Amino acid sequence: MHHRSRPTAGLLGTGAALSLALALTVTVSPALAAPPGPSAEPDPVPALVAGEGTEAPQLVTGLSEAAPGGPAEAARAFLAAHADRFRVDPARLTEVAVERTGQDRHTVRFQQDHGGVPVLGGQYLVRLVGEGADQRVESVGGRYFTGLTAPTKPVAPAAELRRQALDAVQDPRARAGAAVEDRGPVVLPGGAGRLAQHFSVRADDAAGGGPLVHDVYVDATTGVVALAQESSTPYRVGGTDTPAATGPAAVPAVGSAPDLHGRTVPVNVSRQPDGSYQLVDTTRSAGILTYDGGGRDFTEFGGGIPDGILPVSSPGPDFPASAGSSGATDAHVNAAAVYDFYRNRLGRDGLDGKGSPILSVVNVTDHGRPFVNAAWGGRTMVYGAGDDLHLPFSAAMDVAGHEMTHGVVEHTANLVNIGQSGAMNEGIADYFGNAVEVTAHGVKMDDPTAPLMGESLCRTGTPQECATRNLDNRHTTVNDYLGAGKEFDNGGVHANSTIFSGALWDIRRTLDPLTADRLVYRALAEYLTPLDDFVAGRNAVLAAGKSLKLSAADLRKVAAAFDAHGIKAGWQSRVGTDSRTLMPGGTAPLGPVTGGGHWVMGSVLPNDKGIALYTGSTTGTGTPVRLSPDDGRTHGWAATDGKSAVWLAVGPDSTGTWGIAVVTAPLTGGPLRTLFQGLHGSLANLRMSGGDIAFTLTDNATDQTRVYLSHDGAAPTQLPLPEGHNVSSSLAFRDGRLGWIETWSADGATVQAPTVYSTATGKATAQYPVSTPQDGAKPYLGSPVLAGDRLLWLAAPADRTLPTALRSGALDGSGVTDLLPADSRYSLTEREFTASDQAVSYVHRSPEPTTGWSNAALPKLYQLPLTGGTPVRVSCNRGGQYHPVADQGTRVLWLDGTVGRNDLVVRDKPAGSC
Questions:
Q1: Which residue in 402, 494, 598, 635 is the catalytic one?
Q2: Which residue from 40, 299, 524, 630 has the least number of CB within 10 angstroms?
Q3: Is pTM beyond 0.85 here?
Q4: Which of 389, 412, 435 is the last residue of a domain?
Q5: Quick check: is 848 catalytic?
Q6: Domain limits at 357?
Q7: 507 and 617 share a domain?
Q8: Res. 680 pLDDT band, cuts 50 70 90
Q9: Is 52 one of the annotated active-site residues of the chain?
């Protein structure tokens, strides 16, 4: 759930993620779906949903085919017997779970592997009804990725894979103390697939927001980060074992305890052999145990309960006031309510469906600071003690239900915490969190507090003012979808959640609540898979409704609820934009570059084996074409002059040796030419000007960066720098001039100097020295750009949260001005800009609003003349706008997230005001 302050993982949200951009198309098979009669309304349940980029269907309903035997064996035999229909190889499937819902219904969930390596999100489900000889397959579906040819053995050195995972933590202060856990190989789906090594990297947020855990997938062939996201579990690394639930001599008893509202309530407890009592409820399966963290850090409870910590105890059955003030009583009671809801209404025995203990810990902190949050950590519920504004987070039953439902999701569909799948994860948790509360408290569905999440947490204010989310906010995909990138809420997992949960809540209001609860639970447990999007979620709920034998009228009500929230196939095309799309977004696109009316960009499209380079016209004429070969390497980080492109090829060469090569090829096609390879250190900032190529090379041992120049394809040579001088930041190259930021020490202080260098004379022609204060508060100077007759660069304070100035100087070293002062209303906030001879375009983000993320708070592009002036909006697209690159005049290209993927788009001139 999202909160007003900086979110940490858990109830109130998590920071960043990256979309996998695995889209599906919806088609109906004539063989499986007969046309309706003249007066009949169409069946809203799709008979067939076909997967894009795979031959295996995502969903097939309306089956009734014999499949006798044990559920798992029968499901596997059915798929084997119909391989021509479903394109699924049972030999590539491993049984994950058999979900039993009712006396005669089983769902078998399989995990796909490729050469023994699990495929991320690759799950296929077979649903069976009946028993024994009468057992039949009702439907099948999921995500099974055909055509995978990725290798199954890593090529890149293990040390390099680990280093890349660590480098995914961008802030060096957090990276210094990070812990890295290797979680094994995995195949990333899409096209031929990519073998990756999965790492969990736990680092403390240097900005003071608590610990962050990053799930990082590093391409095991090329050694390049393929996917990085902030995990929904904030303390995965270094967990401990779960203790036994209770001693063998403990006796169930009923006691009493005060809650956070001053009421004395009955609690199920256990009498210990020494006569004391503990908050241990043994009447519910393997037990509900509640602990007081005593102010310890919440990360200590990642894998369970550390040794030596016992459940909250009392000398007698009547527990003291401390059990109430710490939130322990409420946590204990609410855990029982959640268990009872799932057991009595849905037939599920505990969060994992196997009756494992439910462990709750209250009164924990965040590195000594108040932990104003709650979180499900994989084995344990943890609750912060609140602050001056908030009660301990165990006070709210809907919060408890929300977080524990994450445990149910983890053991069923395991929806990945990215983009739309993550938003459904949060939305389903919200739905059941609220359903638990209104059911336990007897709240009517038309009560104005029923759709509110966390409304009882605030010490003051109305429920509406306190609630962190409202399932009745009427958000839709077309009007409200947060087109966020990885920097924002894991791609909008909390901000977009009410689009989906709002549809579910409308269904609960329209249908009988018990029917709605069973409907959503069946969709979760029997139909959804980890990478499903909103439309797949809609289809799952409708298919679950058909299996529950809902009437045609009720199924139409379900479909209407999704329609009202804009959740239908092709919704992206109904989102208005004012830009032209040059290439639809693939997986993890690299920023584009331009030159001579052409663009070049690295991306992963369907059927690509890894990041490949594509090129096209900046005007949008023609069709983008692939520039790089399909040779098993990652191709990216390019530069172009409009005729040729130069880029890095990372991965194994023709001999199988892993390395980095600088390669070039004409944009019109032709043989790939290797300019140089086998370089040691970090090579970056490739640039082209005429027939010359420049780049920077950092020595990993000394951390020194130097500039290298290749003239007309010759071997690169290092450009001379005075003794003790170094190059920092990026590189600019145009018309025989290079621009960089040069640094050296003088009189005990560091000097930073934006520098212009002539390749013709081999000398620096201009420098603009800036001294650094001796107190070490080093400002940031960087991102030099050569445009017109000026050198532009960024000047930012050491504190990254403060605004950045955009400076400009003449090429002879004179006339330094602030083209855009740091105190400007529209100052640079993201340290990202581009320029042509006519205009400067840059990224600006408004401060985060107090009510949470919104499209208005996402990065937007602004433009002003190169000579200065008032900035105006480049585009009124509502989503995030990233990685701008200038073309000629006022034309600018960028990656746009408005429709939920990173499309490469262009505008010829700014929109002005929006």
A1: 494
A2: 40
A3: yes
A4: 412
A5: no
A6: 239-412
A7: no
A8: low
A9: no
